Amino acid sequence: MNDRMIYYENLKALGKCVNHPNRDAIFGRVSCQDCLDRSNVISTIHHTDSMIHGKCPIHPSQNVVSGMFRCQGCLDWQRNYRRVLKNSGKCYGHPHRDVVPGNTRCKECVEYSRVRHIAIQEKKFGVSYPTWWLCDICNKPIALFKGEIMLDHDHITGLFRHWLCEICNTAEGQIRKYIKNGTFDKLLELAKK
To answer: Does 3 reside within a domain?
Structure first.
C-alpha cells in the first residue's frame, strides 16, 4: 500500500474529508458535503454534455451507447473491472478491501447500505425501527444491529403491518403467493405428510 492510500485510509478512519482534512466526511464516504456537491455538479455537466453531443465524457472522440452516458469501451472496462474484483474477492467500492463472505461488498459498504435502507424505510412508512423486538409471528427475539428486524408492509396499500424476523417475513410473503395462486391447500397437504 502506498503512502497516499495510507493517508486516505487514515482520514476515512477518522471520518474526515480527503480534500479538506479539517472537515467531517459524510457517513460512508471520504468527502465532505461541499466536495460531494462539486462532484455532482461536474458529473451533471459531463452527463448533460454527453447527452447533448452524444460523446463520451472520458473519451470525447467516441460516441455514447444509446441510452447511456459512456462509450462502449468504458462500459466494457467497467464490466470487466467488476468481474475481476468479484473473482478476486475484493469490494467494488473499495478495491483494496476483502468482501464479506457470501457478499460482493466489504463490511463498510454492507453496513452503509443497511443503514441507508433503514433510513429510507423509516421515512417511507413513517415508523422508527426498534433496537430489539419479539417477532410478531414466532416471538423470537430479534435485534436491529444484527440486521434481523424486517419491516412487513402491505404491498397494495403500502401501509406498515408488523415487525418480523427474516424467516417469518419470507414465509409470510410466500404463503400470500400460494393463497393468491390458489395452491395453498396443496401446500398444506404436502406439509402434513
So the answer is: yes
Cell 473499495 identifies what position? 94
Q: Is 19 exposed, middle or buried (0-12, 13-18, 19+ CB in 10 A)?
A: middle
Q: How far is CA 89 from CA 18, 50, 85, 94, in A?
A: 26, 33, 6, 11
Grid coordinates standing for 99? 468482501
Type of residue numbered 50? S
User: Residue 131, SS3?
Assistant: coil
| pLDDT tens figures, 64-104 | 887 777 788 888 887 787 777 777 888 877 778 888 887 87
Within a domain: 114: no
CA 165 to chain centre: 20
- Measured CA to CA, the distance from residue 75 to residue 52 in angstroms comes to 19
Residue 12 lies in a domain: yes
Beta bridge partners of 18: none
Decide: residue 11, CB within 10 A, 0-12 exposed, 13-18 middle, 19+ buried: middle
Q: Give the range of the structural domain holding residue 166, as residue numbers without chain letter.
A: 128-192
Domain count, the chain: 2
What pLDDT does residue 104 have? 79
- The model's pTM: 0.48
The CATH number that applies at residue 156 is 3.40.1800.10
